[in-house]
Structures
1.
Amino acid sequence: MKVQSYLFFDGRCEEALEYYRLHLGAKIGMMMRFKDNPEPQQQPGMSAPSVADKVMHAEFSIGETTLMASDGYAQGKPEFKGFSQSIATKDDAETKRIFDALADGGQVQMPLGKTFYASSFGMVADRFGVPWMVITENSGAVKG
């Protein structure tokens, strides 16, 4: 069994994938646009010309994790609630680099800093609204 996150960017999927490629080293495995779907669309509005070039399905990986993504209904109002993606890095410099990249155009929810469980930890919603927690793994957790 495998559990994967599937992110719906509501019209900004390709932009998000490119941002993650540049700043997080994401590798795009596959991407299919609505116009490339071999079967007619069943849902209203999904065959409209304005949706044709939008991403129907994409698969990408960041480090060892594979995620999936889509433009969904491409309404331009993505909402990500009730979860957070978590990135664990090997050192504080990499944690800071990734946190700063995600914070660029986004919203810091908890500034990057030292905690009792890590030498660096912070929370941010990126420019697409995806919530992230960034932590330096095995860096300062209290052992008891």
2.
Amino acid sequence: MATFMKTKNRTNTNHWNGTVAGRPSTRSTGAEIRAVAWLCRHPLFLLLPGVLLAATLWWGPVPPGATLGGLALGLVAWWRAHPPTYDRWVAPRVRSCWRRWTAYRGRRWARMLSDCELTREQRGTGHTLVPRVLRVRAVTPSIDTLTVRMVRGQDAETFTDRAPALADALGAHRVATTRTRPGVLTMVVERRMPFTAPVPPAPLPATADEVDLSALDVGDVETGAPFLLRLRGKHVLTVGRSGAGKGSLLWNPWRAMAPMIRDGLVRLWVIDLKGGTETDRGRPLYHRWATTGREAVELLTEYRDSMKDRQSWMRTEGVRESPISRDTPLELLVIDELAMLTAYGDRTDVRECLRLLAEVLTQGRAADHSVMGYVQEPTKDVVDVRDLFTVRICLAVTAASHVDMALGDGARDRGALADQIPGDPAHAGIGFVMDDRSRLPVRFRAGWVTDRDIDELVARATPRTADVLPFPTDTDTEIDDRDDERGEEHAS
């Protein structure tokens, strides 16, 4: 018994410091050790002052001062002389460093996370554990992208739940978070609305070879990069209330692939159940056009039969992917006011249209038969085939629940606040789409298309028309001058 008690005492008691084995020490890491570890992570913080000090001791204060002054003067001259290259190469790096040191480190960052209940207390030592920012990227003045290492016991949902409070603490418009890898998340901080002016419409390519159907430039994303829409092999559903700018996502893709429409490589099948008011201006572009429920059923039947014929041809030729040519073009079905086709129309027509549309959405991808639909209300009662669309876009909507219906569960919690987009014309065309890799919502603005832009598209892209105008290769000013000269000749 005595032997057992001695063994137990030796096992549980550390005679060197009097603490019980297995319990963590109450002492925190020394400040000098933390400082050395920080310098190892940020070597330039010590290297640059050391280089300047060495240069000053070696050459005196004038050469290093002149070098720094010349560098600063050169950056200012670059900033004033050529803003596009400066904003691309220099501004993001300067902005990222500034934001990291002024907003996302030190006591200010720790106090803010503590106020938002995003810190944890280490047991035993009482030390406050603060999530650490690993990287800051401020590509544009309005968007900061942070890579944050969470403390043990936290997960991405912890930050998602506190995102509104975090946005208010940062003075930001919104904060979106997503898990990048174990223990690390990506946080997108939108400091202000990125779109202060309308985006120009998609430019008209000169030839069909310049068109990439997997990356149609139809606007800008919030980082300043082009908003690229993949059309081939995809079915696109656009959700937005009245006045949200759905027309911008109807006409811009057509402008981006205009030479292919002109050359017969893309054929447009258009259903407009608002009596044709939205699409009448582009009527010469269409292969088929329907404006009533009965006409829509006939058009869908013909479109489905076209898909079946293409599938039969592919089986005969032994190909899995149809090449795009004049004999086998991309067949694009465009449906404006999809709800009239799937819910609100004549019941007999609705049932038939739903059956045909479901068949096309499930089988049309390989046969180059794509669908673009536009609807105001994305509920299952209205769009029963909603989940068959492979690309979904959400413009301004009237209810928060519509965001998740359009973009998927949890999209609004991750920052897709489409229900908070103002409904005035100044914000038309602004919306969200989910990034395929990060699953973060990306805000974009589609190009603003005027009646004049539509008329230009019709004049230059109408298929099989002898007097089609050439595609623009000069500046817009020169094009406008030629149009004005033709108008004066016609008037005379």
3.
Amino acid sequence: MECKVSWLGQDGMGFVAETGSGHIVAMDGAPEGGGHNLAPRPMEMVLLGTGGCTAYDVVLILKKSRQEVHGCSVVLKAERASEDPKVFTKIHFQFTVTGRNLNPATVERAIKLSHDKYCSASIMLSKTAELTHGFDIVDA
């Protein structure tokens, strides 16, 4: 896996990242840090990447478990250390899984498997942060 991150220039703290798969993502800093608030912060990208990683796992595991899943979203709420390096110290993942006749035990198992075995991002973040999760099931 590879990516390239390039600074956009002297007048701010904007960056553009090009992924190995050919996609472009913009990042920017807060105004108090010299940015223009035109794109997500780099640490927000870490958090959203983690959410994507675990949601991907949960959907895949539920499909393989023959659950009729129609939707999956996860809200991540994180706290960071007050001193540098400002690592994540706590992250709560709140999943909403939509489907027909979803088994709560299977949903819980899918989330735990993602966090404990498959989601590389959350497993890395668990080295500095306390990870917790909850879930709601919406019958569709």
4.
Amino acid sequence: MSRYVFQYHPNPLETGAFKNDQTVICDCCGKETDVYYTGPFYSVEEVEQLCPECIASGRASEKYDGEFQDEASTDPVSDPAKLEELICRTPGYCGWQQEYWPAHCDDYCAYLGYYDWKRLEKEGLADEIEETYREDICGVEFAFAKEHLQRDSGYLFRCLHCRKHFICIDFD
């Protein structure tokens, strides 16, 4: 899998977007793969598993007329090629409700994984997250988010350019 670099999701095996617990057949290319994706993929056809190559090349998106991220749940950027890279060639992540992908410095941020408040504090990110917190995409006031943020409801992102961190929150 190291051959495939996803700038907006740099560690998909670590975040759980890719699995490597068995060998499967990629629905797109029909080849065996021991690293595969089973996350969100929005298409009319039911797609169970995809290999990293079919995602990185855009083949899966093209073949199934599908997207890995809902365009309506992203921040706007000025370059349409960046949006295409995100929705057609970047593995998504699983949220409780609707996943959101933030942008900063006119580019999409890199998804780093699931975080709760304790982990943010442990990694020295709590103050930065308080500064960059966006109620418009999280849907709750910061104080509530800080108190109730659990590991599987906080999604951490980092700007590719200025390296600032952002959190998206999804409560049921």
